Amino acid sequence: MPRAAPPSSWLRLEAAEALLDGLPPRAEALLEVLFVVALVAVGALRSSFFASLAFVGVGLALVRPWRASHGGVLARVATALVTVVAIAVASVPAEVPEPRRIGIDPAQVASRAEDPPPPAGGGVLEIRAVSPAFPAASVLRPGDRIVAIDGAPLDPKAPLAALRQHVQAARGDEVGLTLVRAGKLEDVRVGLPRVEAPARRPAAAQALGELVRRHVLVATVVRAACVLAFIALLLRGRGRSLASLGLGRTGLELDALAVVPLAAGAFAVSIATGLVVNVFATLLRSGFAEREAAARSAVLLDLVGGTPVAAFVLAMIVTAAFEEVVFRGFLLPRLRLVTGSWGIAIAVSSMAFGAGHLYEGRVAILQTTALGVFFSLAFLRRARLLPVVLAHATFNVAVFGLLTWAQRSGALPHP
């Protein structure tokens, strides 16, 4: 029986009330919220073996593979197996490795006729500035030209990316650079900031964690797909589908028209939030916003560096679909049912969305929380999730594209 729509609130989200139809009782909705948040936040299967079994058991109890809504006997068995695998894979943390940086601002340049030629016809990077906060300050100076790292020539087409990837993959506490200085080749050793060693875990878990760290973007997409599969199975157990989350086929024309304005709105919200943070940082005479912006750029570039364009765009679409289905389509209506308020539901889901970007820094948390509020209102206004997914994906692709262009053109310092 459809739920009676409450009186219209100041948010005027009458269309969103249809999202409450068919939801489970409040206590069960709260359990679904807590389980999905735990699954997304990961760490659930890092505990003891019995705690991990209990977590999987709760997931099976929510999906209810024994229900006829999943199909025949074979379909129910398959549902149970897929549920277990989806929970297990989704619980493997896609950890973003802590970026290691030399502390320089290099730019790609051509080799000069009066200088020794770069090894094997490799690329050349000229150092424009050196950060005094890094060990490189005592070794490198502006004007030095890097032509090799640990004896390997730089990629002539993308020397900045080659330098960044080599430094990120370095296992020791320093790297060797071959420089052109005063018209002569010179080899120097440059220290790297120490990175905390990961906690000791079983050999299999360490190997899996290392694989995830080497392929962070792929691991993130696989985890996202597993969480989406779990939510789809959970909905099917209640005789529902992803259409109940605002992904129905009707209204596709209006959805397409809404993508560009929503993406533009997302940019406006992100820029406005960044400006507010920078104003406060200036008033407080704090440079944390500028430092975090540089570090955030490095983290994001390390995350997607070297990824083919088609694979990158596909990854952004899957990631955007995952975030919108989880934080908007799934959590928002259930939080509204549990709290009785769309405003509280928007605030809680947006803060959870922002907290998921902790690896990008405090400023990123504020910006993504604000984006969460914007995307929530856009979704609830028409109870349509597809345009929000596409706008979110467009925003992500544009941001990463601009960062990559700025870094390759030398407009973005490489910290």
Description:
The protein is of the alpha+beta class. Among the domains are: 104-191, Pdz3 Domain, CATH 2.30.42.10; 240-415, no CATH class. It has helices spanning 26-41, 49-63, 73-90, 159-169, 203-214, 216-237, 252-283, 288-304, 309-339, 342-355, 362-382, 386-409, and strands at 104-109, 124-130, 145-149, 152-153, 174-181, 184-191. The model is unreliable at 4-10 (pLDDT under 50).
List low-confidence stretches: 4-10
Mean pLDDT: 80
Which of globular, elongated, flat, extended, rod-shaped describes the shape? elongated
Classify the helix fraction into a percent range: 55-70%
Reported for the largest beta sheet, the result is:
6 strands, antiparallel
Radius of gyration computed on alpha carbons: 25 Å
Number of extended strands: 6
Indicate the proportion of strand residues: 5-15%
In short:
It is built from twelve helices and six strands. By secondary structure, the protein is α+β, with helices and mostly antiparallel strands. α3 runs antiparallel to α6 (216-237).
